[in-house]
Amino acid sequence: xxxxxIGSGNMGRSLGILWAEQGHQVFFGARTAExxxxxxxxxxxxxxxxxxxxxxxxxxxxxxxxxxVDPSEVLASTEVLTGKxxxxxxxxxxxxxxxxxxxxxxxxxxxxxxxxxxxxxKAFNTMxxxxxxxxxxxxxxxxxxxxxxxDDAKAKQTVMQLxxxxxxxxxxxxxxRNARLIEEMADFVRFLAIGQLQNFYTTLSVxxxxxxxxxxxxxRQTSNLA
Length: 226
Ligand SMILES: NC(=O)c1ccc[n+]([C@@H]2O[C@H](COP(=O)([O-])OP(=O)(O)OC[C@H]3O[C@@H](n4cnc5c(N)ncnc54)[C@H](OP(=O)(O)O)[C@@H]3O)[C@@H](O)[C@H]2O)c1
Known about the structure:
Distance between the termini: 42 Å
Oligomer: single chain
Number of helices: 8
Bound molecules: NADP nicotinamide-adenine-dinucleotide phosphate
Shape: globular
């Protein structure tokens, strides 16, 4: 797969290296060609580097890690994004005291409105860069969830595969509207990791438990609650 990284900071660099290790062709983009090339030099494995525009042209799948910046400010033309998968790993700023406002529209939905010609997929925002340092081994043994949401089923499958390849368990999290839930989850993870536990190796994962062998509490009764 040809993957372009738009914004090769902590997230872009880490995910780009992991995908290059899996044999994908990766192009690291940055605001200056020199920065993109420097990240590619660090990454090795035949990766390339240059401007964000060049990364956007190169990739069929793009990681968009320039938080809160409209693609029209990052790219000379957003036409280049037409039909491409745009992975959104972004989270909002952490407010003082972790007093987050409720999310009424997610960053991913905003991105999709800004570039309706692209196929936006929310993923990779519920764990810190440190967790990626564990990938793919020993990460695999910890069964860490990556929540993936998109209105395009095929694009979602592609991103789920990219998550699985680097050692995560991909969780189909429905349509892009659910990015609201996923971004709220990431806000909670950051409260735990930074505020409460002070450990950046903190994340949240789904566990589906085996059914109880014996129903001794009366089981689930009919209820009027939704
Ligand atoms: N780091 C984590 O642990 C983590 C975990 C989960 C999610 N996230 C989310 O991932 C996103 C990226 O985080 P990060 O840690 O990778 O941040 P970072 O290391 O600070 O990198 C940010 C990237 O955004 C680019 N950028 C910033 N402003 C820009 C602008 N006006 N135009 C073009 N590019 C711009 C920077 O480009 P240049 O290199 O050209 O300056 C840089 O590559 C954030 O939304 C963050 O919330 C981060």
